[in-house]
Amino acid sequence: MENAVLSAIFDQMADIMEILGEDRFRINSNRKVARVIEDIPTDVEYLLASGQLAKVPGIGKSSLAKIEEFTKTGTITAHQELLKKIPPEQLELLNIPGVGPKGVKAVYEQLKVKSITELKAVIENGSLAGLPGFGDKKAAAIARGIAFLEKSTGRIRLDLALEASHMVLRFLRDVAGTVKSQTAGSLRRCAETIGDVDILVAVDKGKVTGGEGGQIIQEFTSAEFVQEVLASGPTKGSAIIQTPSTTVHVDVRVVPQESFGAAAQYFTGSKEHNVRLREIAVKAKLKLNEYGLFKGDKIVAGPVEEEIYQKLGLDYVQPLLREDRGEVEAAKNHSLPELIDPEDIVGDLHMHTNASDGNCGISELAEAAKAWGYKYICITDHSRSSAIANGLSAKRLAQEIQEIRKINDKIKGITILAGSEVDILANGSLDFENELLAELDFVIASVHSGLASPRQKVTMRTLKAMDNPYVNCIGHPTGRLIGQREAMDLDIAAVINHAAQTHTALEVNANPWRLDLKDIHCRMAIEAGVKLAIGTDAHSTNGL
C-alpha cells in the first residue's frame, strides 16, 4: 500500500473539518498524521502488520484504528462521513492557489460560494474584495490563482506521471506478446508537467494486426488500475488510471518491433524537433515517419532509434534535449552536452531535520545519504523567520552546528557540513547576523514570503542577498510550486548576471513540486558561467 494515499486522506479530512469549523485539536492531529505517514520510508501496511506503527511518534490510537480500517476495507468511515457534509465543488476551491480551508469557509458562510464558478462571479462583482480579511489585493491574487489553475488543469507533475508509467510498464511487461515497452511523449522528455502518459509496446513482426496488438490493448484496458476506458482498438488504447496519488490519462500504442525505434523517435517529439529531422531527411531525399526512415520504398532505419539519427548524419540526441533549442545543430557538429547521470551526483546541499520542519535527525539523513553512495551532505534547517517551519533561532543554530561537528566526527565515510537555509527578508537582508553565518560551511538564501511583491522588489531582495559574502547559493530562486503557485515576477536575467558577478550558485531544487530553476533558466545560467547546485530539499530520508 502506498503511504501517499493515506496521507492524502488524512489531509483531506483536516481540510473538510477546517471548512466545517470543527475542533482545532482534531484538525491539527489529522494534519500531523498526514505528515508522519508521508515521511515514513517503510510501507505503512507492513509497519501495521508488524506492530511497529503504534510506536511511531504522532500515530495515536484513533489514527491507528483508521489506518487499520483502510488496510482492511480500502476506505475510512470517518473520511466518508466528512465527504457527505460538503459538496465536491466546494472541495475544488482548495485547488486554487491562495485559497485555503479558512478562505473556503469564509466565502461560503458570508457569500454562499461553493464552487469556482461562483467564486469568479463574486470576484467580478466586487463582493469578495468587500469581505473582512480579503480586500482588493487578495481578491486579485485569487483571480490570478483561478487563471493559473485553469491553465494547469489536465496537466500533472512529472513525478506523478512517472508513478503512473511505472505502474503500467510493470503490468505490460508481463502481458503475453510484449517484446519491449517504454514511455514516449513529453514524459520521456521529462517535461515538468505532463498532459497524458504515452507508452509504446513492441510486438513481433506481423503480429500487430494479427491479434496480439488488440490482445495487449484489451489486457491494458481491463487492468485493475483502469478507472475509465476512453478508447480501445487493435493498436491503441486510452484510459484513465488510478495511481496511489492521483488519476492519470494513459495512452498505450502497439507497434511492430521493426518500427519500434522510429515510433519511439516520432512519438517522443517534440513536434519542433521532429520537424527539424524531417527537413534534414527531405534534403537527403529520404522520408521519415513513425514507421521508419525510407529511401524510396526501402527502409534504411527503423528498429533502433539511434540508427535514425546516424543515417541522418547526426549524433544521437537524448530525449531530454529534443526541444529544438539548438540540439540539432549540436548533433551535426558533434558538440552535444554530456548529460548528468545519477551516479554523477555525489552530494546534497539542501535538506532539513526534525530541528525545523523535517522528520528525522542528522544521523538518519547522513546514514541514508551514505547508503546512496554520497560523499557529502549539508544540513540546512530553516532560519528563525520561517516560524511555520519551526525555524531555528540563532542560539539553536549555534547548538546545531556543534551537534553536526560531533556527528561528522562519529560517522565515517561521509562528510556532514553545517549549513542553513536562511530567509531573505523584505529589505534583502538575511535572517542571521554575519558573525553566525561565518560559522557555517554553506549558506542557502531563500525567499519564503512576499512572493507576490512587484518585480522590482523581489528582484532587489535576491540581488542584495547575493551581495552578502557568506551566501553561497540562492535556494529555489523563482519560488514556484508547480500546479499550485506561480513563480515570482523575477528579473531572472538580472539575477543570473549578478550571480556570475558575485560567484553565487543558483539552486536546481529537485523537489518535484519545484524543479526550480527550470530548464531554460539553467541553460541561461550555464551560459553565463554560473554554478548550479542540485539539492533535494529533503525533509526525510525518502526525500533524498
Short description:
By secondary structure, the chain is an alpha/beta fold.
Query: How would you describe the shape?
Result: globular
What proportion of the residues form beta strands (DSSP E)? 15-25%
Major sheet = 7 strands, parallel
The CATH topology of the largest domain comes to TIM Barrel
Features:
7-stranded parallel sheet; TIM Barrel; 3 domains; DNA polymerase, domain 1; 16% strand; 22 helices; 17 strands; 544 residues; 5-stranded mixed sheet; Beta Polymerase, domain 2; single chain; alpha/beta
Task: Outline the structure in words.
With 544 residues, this protein is an alpha/beta fold. The protein folds into three domains: 3-152, DNA polymerase beta, N-terminal domain-like (DNA polymerase, domain 1, Orthogonal Bundle); 157-332, Beta Polymerase, domain 2, CATH 3.30.460.10; 342-535, TIM Barrel, CATH 3.20.20. 43% of the residues lie in helices and 16% in strands. The strands form four sheets. A seven-stranded parallel sheet has the order 11-12-13-14-15-16-17. Strands 2-4-7-6-5 form a five-stranded mixed sheet, sandwiched between helices. It has a three-stranded antiparallel sheet with strand order 8-9-10. The chain is globular, with a radius of gyration of 26 Å.
